[in-house]
Amino acid sequence: MHFPPPAPSPPLAPTTLVALDGVGKRFASGTQALAGVDLRIGEGEFLAILGPSGCGKSTLLRLIAGLAEPSEGVIRRAAARQVGFVFQDPTLLPWSDAITNVRLPLRLAGFEREEQEARAAQALAAVGLAGFERAYPRELSGGMRMRVSLARALVTRPSLLLMDEPFAALDELTRHRLNDDLLGLAAGSGMTVVFVTHSVFESVYLASRIIVMAARPGRIAAEMPVDAPGENGAPRPPGFRTSAEYAGLCREATEALEWAMTQ
Length: 263
What we know:
Layout (H helix, E strand, L loop, with lengths): L15 E11 L5 E11 L3 E5 L6 H9 L6 E6 L5 E4 L11 H11 L4 H14 L15 H13 L5 E5 L7 H18 L2 E6 L2 H7 L2 E6 L4 E7 L18 H17 L3
Parallel strand pairs: 3-7, 3-8, 5-6, 6-7
Antiparallel strand pairs: 1-2, 1-4, 8-9
Helix pairs in contact: 2-3, 2-4, 3-4, 6-7
């Protein structure tokens, strides 16, 4: 019996960087981590993936990055793209200073030493660490180590930056400062950011769009646009965190998360 070949997938829209269609992930243990995920990630947007622990947020991010392959469904990516990834922990080389850690991706890619140094110094300056190029990880605070990790992701000048709960272990004030810095960097570069978090407050402050995930198996249960000043990655205005508008958006996101956890 002859079966016709499958119809080709429609081309990605010009503004779409990544498209997921019916994506699922089952691990070798038999655990179904994700099921039926349909998602479009647009150029220049700041997308937050919000959900409780164990709902597959990190697994989804790794699939988007191409660090793992789906068990079901299709992931399509725009051809011309450079991806940066910031993990939950800074994962710095303890025997190397800050600039050596940051230039590592460029060294692995075969860039000349002079360009490695120049671009790494520029990335460190962009995250507020000019003057700390020769500092070792043990000499830096937790927030500064995370800034080095962010600089290392930015040094390749990515069009897509993926971040897996990078600020979760930091104190509140440091986290707020890094949130503001990240928005400024995103606005200045035009890159797309996908940010995994379990914090309603962080997702509303950062994102132009939030997807809310349910667990067992992980799937998208709700989607929420964040219509607020400074959207699409631009910095929020002063006082936004204490505004009634922010409180209302946080309440809406909390309700969506609570509903997703019952699904």
